[in-house]
Write a structure and sequence with these properties.
Number of strands: 4
Strand order of the largest sheet: 1-2-4-3
Shape: globular
Largest sheet: 4 strands, mixed
Order of helices and strands: EHEEHHEHH
Helix content: 25-40%
Strand content: 5-15%
Distance between the termini: 52 Å
């Protein structure tokens, strides 16, 4: 549906960044009525950041299909796509997904610099590689190893660059956030 959907390449997976003949491009499915030119708000959704979580990619794909198949007969969807843009990164971790599809409970990307090059525990947990409140770890083989540094992984770096290109940073000079702790047993 060329008036409603297009693919945007935002970067490379770890394997592709090491060898252009391997790995995958990170592809965003952009859905909007492209015939209506306007400064449209954008919603950006990522899925399948943990390789073994198959359902998130399927759910995001079904959401895209629902929007496109029902544009002509659903006023809410028509309004949404006429006045908004939906961007879907269906496979945030495509290298890890290929590993998981072999039957291994793979979670992280496939970065061979962590743990051991042929270990089934290698890689970085992309969910913990984002720069906001990044925390280091020495447990390279652990399931939640966040990578060597904040945004060190090409997948996260590509996503952050894309986000910075589609959203204006309005946070101001001071970082303010609430840190949630586990409730006490009395709560």
């Amino acid at each position: 549906n060329p008036t409603m959907a297009e693919i945007i390449d935002i970067g490379s997976s770890w394997e592709k960044s090491v060898n252009p003949n391997n790995g995958y491009n990170l592809k965003v499915l952009r859905i909007t009525n492209r015939e209506i030119i306007d400064n449209k708000p954008i919603v950006f959704i990522t899925s399948a950041i943990h390789a073994r979580e198959y359902a998130t990619a399927e759910l995001t794909t079904r959401f895209a299909e629902h929007l496109l198949e029902n544009y002509d007969n659903n006023a809410d969807i028509q309004w949404m796509l006429d006045h908004h843009e939906v961007q879907l990164l269906i496979h945030t971790n495509p290298d890890g997904r290929k590993k998981a599809e072999t039957g291994i409970l793979w979670r992280k990307n496939t970065n061979q610099a962590y743990c051991a090059p042929n270990s089934n525990s290698r890689g970085a947990d992309l969910n913990r590689n984002y720069p906001f409140l990044w925390q280091s770890s020495n447990d390279q083989c652990g399931e939640t190893f966040p990578g060597a540094s904040a945004q060190s992984e090409p997948e996260v770096s590509a996503i952050m660059t894309h986000i910075q290109n589609i959203y204006e940073d309005k946070r101001g000079d001071l970082l303010t956030c609430l840190l949630y702790t586990s409730p006490s047993p009395q709560d």
